[in-house]
Specification:
Elements (H helix, E strand, L loop, with lengths): L1 E2 L1 H10 L8 E2 L4 E4 L5 E6 L6 E9 L7 E5 L7 E6 L8 E8 L4 E3 L3 E2 L1 E2 L1 H10 L14 E3 L5 E4 L8 E7 L4 E5 L6 E4 L8 E9 L2 E10 L18
Parallel strand pairs: 1-16, 2-4, 3-11
Antiparallel strand pairs: 3-4, 4-7, 5-6, 5-8, 8-9, 8-10, 12-13, 13-16, 14-15, 14-17, 17-18
Length: 232
Amino acid sequence: MRINLFVFIFLILGLGSNAFGQDTLPHISVKKTITGKVVISWKNNYGATIKTINIQRSIDSIKAFTTIGTVLNPLNRDNGFVDGKPPAEKMYYRVFIAFDGGSYQFSRSYPALKDTSVYIANLQETNVPQPSGFIPSRYIYTDRENNVIINIPAATIKKYSVKFFDANDKFMFEIKNIPEPYLTLEKVNFKHSGWFNYQLFENEALLEKFQFFISKDYKKGSQSADQGKKNN
């Protein structure tokens, strides 16, 4: 999604909680993010008949499932859960659904697979000349067109916000309640080339404090004279 800051506020007001890559119960979507967290998400078409939804995981796909969480509001149409610390590289997930009247149902088990669309996009976009020795963040970085990318796969599950500052730490603007996993802020929002700082918050806790570099109109096969002039 490409965003100009001047229309962003209207988009925030109009966008709901659109979970990415969701399936409809009793099917679920299970994706592993670039940070190693696992996002389990789904759409609920059962309506008000659902009483409880528990998230379960196992090291295999058949047995030894344990409950790792319960959804606070199982009636939400778009819903999900984040497993922040999977105990093993390869895990399987399912949900237990209890209905009014005592009936229940298990989803089938799903392996936690890397979200390859996010990985490929991230790899392609960060393959842009950067100042010597600088490694961009995996969350906020610039693309080939010098737009600023906000790439947070769990944005529909948790509350994220970001504050932007210039190279002298003078506050510029803030984006509250990032509405979806992938946003593009057009370079015109930053007015000039050079270094910019930011603070990324997850549920109001500081997740990352870092910076990114916007070069002068980068063209393939060449580097801007601005690159390498990093502000310390």
